[in-house]
Amino acid sequence: MTKIKIIGLLGRSGTGKNTVADHIRVMTGERIHVPLLTTSRPKRPLEIEGREYHFVKKEQAIAAIEAGETVWHSCFNDWYYYLPVGNLSQDKVNLLVLNPSAAVQMDQMNKANNEFMSLRFFELTLPDAELWKRVGTRPDLIEVCRRWPEDIKDFNEANYKKLPVYHMQNDDSNITAYMLTNYIMGMEDAWAKDIKPHIWNPTLYGIPKKKTEDCE
């Protein structure tokens, strides 16, 4: 059976994971699939069904979660957010922006279901000083400050620390996206050889050797 291929980008607020994901989408074109999330949150003005989210009723969300039909799920302000298994592509590489809890859930679900997914997690990092410099001019600075201690706690959670995660210092989002795009383009070979993020040789995919040393 062909496994579902997934690249998960993680990182504390301000590390640029969403920017890197946007660049990768442009660089890879049709080679990747970005699964759409489902939520029980009411649709906001200007939001369109099938663009931002699939919008469902709370009862539908609870039923999907209880039936084990989700790769991961969370609840915020009594609204459910989740990724249905059916939203994943069987043929393309799936690109996801995740938080640590979602990554742990995906890993646990995978192990409980004969490892039907091939998971690759990449955590983008920055030194605190550089991170503060980046977020200092953001319009959502108050929200970033609120999430700062939560991020530190989440990214040091014991179950997350056990996952095989490859760390990349995101000094330049374009370069980081380029390196990951090279990896994705060579992904068929990487998956065939079952190369894991913490042991694969980044130089095979255009990633400078120094990046490996930075992450050890």
Summarize this entry quickly.
The chain is an alpha/beta fold and about 220 residues long. It is built from 9 helices and 9 strands. Helix content is about 40%, strand content about 20%.
Task: Tell me about this structure.
This protein has 216 residues and is of the alpha/beta class. It folds into two domains: 159 residues, Rossmann fold (3-Layer(aba) Sandwich), CATH 3.40.50.300; 52 residues, Guanylate Kinase phosphate binding domain (2-Layer Sandwich). It is built from nine helices and nine strands. Strand 5 and strand 6 form a beta hairpin. It is globular, with a radius of gyration of 17 Å.
Q: What's the structural blueprint in terms of helices and strands?
A:
Blueprint: E1 4-11, H1 17-28, E2 32-33, E3 38-39, E4 54-55, H2 58-66, E5 70-76, E6 79-84, E7 93-97, H3 100-112, E8 117-125, H4 128-135, H5 141-154, H6 158-161, E9 165-169, H7 173-185, H8 187-192, H9 209-215
Parallel strand pairs: 1-7, 1-8, 2-7, 3-4, 8-9
Antiparallel strand pairs: 3-6, 5-6
Helix pairs in contact: 1-7
Distance between the termini: 34 Å
Task: State the strand order across the main sheet.
Answer: 2-7-1-8-9
Strand content: 15-25%
* CATH topology-level name of the largest domain: Rossmann fold
Please identify the oligomeric state: single chain
The first-level CATH class name of the largest domain: Alpha Beta
Major sheet summary line:
5 strands, parallel
The number of strands is 9
How many structural domains can be distinguished in the coordinates? 2
Compute the CA-based radius of gyration.
17 Å
List the uncertain runs. Answer: 195-216
